[in-house]
Amino acid sequence: MNLLGHEPAWREWRKAMAGERMHHAWLFAGRRGVGKASFAQAAARELVGAAPGESGHHPDIVTLTYGPKDDKEERKRADGKPFELARSIRISQIRAMQARLGTRPTLGERRAIIIDPADDLERNAANALLKSLEEPPRGTYFLLVAHSPARLLPTIRSRCRVLRFPTVSDTEMNGLLGEMAPGADDATRAAAIVAAAGSPGAALEFVELELGKVAQAMHQILERGDPDFHLRGALAGLIGARPDRDRIRAILELARSVVAQRLDATLSDPRPIIDTHGELVRLTGEQPTYNFDAGLLAMEIGTLLAKAATASERADG
Asked: Where is the composition biased (Basic and acidic residues) (predicted)?
């Protein structure tokens, strides 16, 4: 089943597959949660000739994503236990993939290498990947999934054909949430749609992580300020003492959406809003590689929102 908004991407992909010389490297670009990874897996299966409806591991599809954080976590994975993920894709993973490229594909003439997300490659890993993109083995195709393509090396971007994945409309999002999250009330769905900014995955994550009250707390700080730190304390409590990486990322993206909603032409001074949004973008960019203390992060987000509260005054009073 195709996800929302994927029809143009499928047309372009299948047109390329039907051509005489298909490009060897593709960059699937778009907001987190619009279904790029799902598309990459499905496209790779078509590429290597997997039977329609076939699922499970395919020997000619190699997927590189976050691995265990260290040897201790690797042992946990080997034992079938929960393990902590690394915050980047490492050069050892690229080297292991490259070692396989010296052999022929197992079942056919094509092999697909999926890197998800490619914008979280370590610098050395990115440089190593570049060598494979410059001299791709015959029959090998690289599918790079990127939420923030600007973080990729320009030399990697230049060797890829870009396939962009658009966001979806609020109407489509509302219908999707009605199907996928029927237990969510109208207020939660409405908040999820605004916070997700056109990303179905982000909207579903918003509902699943129960971020409605977090969004309300952020709006209160941005509207009122927080001179006695009471609202910031409440925000920290809602975020939780030990949020995992996915929750931290979702909260940072939510804060950016909350701030972006305040930016319009009627603000008497938009600079505090613009500066706050810029700082939240910086924090979001650091999130994959930094170990944030949950309490300090909550206070930093709250303080940024409180400083921006002065921009809530409208030019027309």
From this structure: 68-80
Closest CA to 294 of 256, 257, 248, 254: 248
Confidence of residue 267 (pLDDT cuts 50, 70, 90): low
In what helix (H) or strand (E) does residue 311 lie, and over which residues does it extend?
none
Q: Which residue(s) pair with 164 in the sheet?
A: 29
How far apart are alpha carbons 206 and 215 in whole angstroms? 10
Contacts 24+ apart (CB under 8 A), 42-49: 43/13, 43/112, 43/143, 44/112, 44/114, 44/141, 44/143, 46/13, 46/14, 46/17, 47/17, 47/110, 47/112, 47/141, 48/105, 48/107, 48/108, 48/110, 48/111, 48/112, 49/107, 49/108, 49/110
Dig out the tokens for 125 from the structure: 């890993």
Amino acid at 177: L
Q: What is the pLDDT of residues 136-185, one digit of tens each?
A: 999 999 999 999 999 999 999 999 999 999 998 989 888 989 888 898 88
7-164: CATH topology is: Rossmann fold (3.40.50)
Residue 221 has pLDDT above 80, yes or no: yes
Burial of 195 (0-12, 13-18, 19+ CB in 10 A): buried
CA distances from 181 to 39, 92, 155, 184, 214 (A): 22, 39, 41, 6, 19
The SS3 call for residue 202 is helix
pLDDT in tens, 176-218: 898 888 988 887 888 888 888 889 988 998 888 888 889 889 9
Integer Cα distance of 138 and 135 in angstroms: 9
Q: How far is CA 306 from CA 161, 167, 225, in A?
A: 43, 30, 4
The average confidence (pLDDT) of the chain is 88
Q: List Cα–Cα distances, 209 to 171, 193, 237, 243, in angstroms.
A: 22, 14, 14, 10
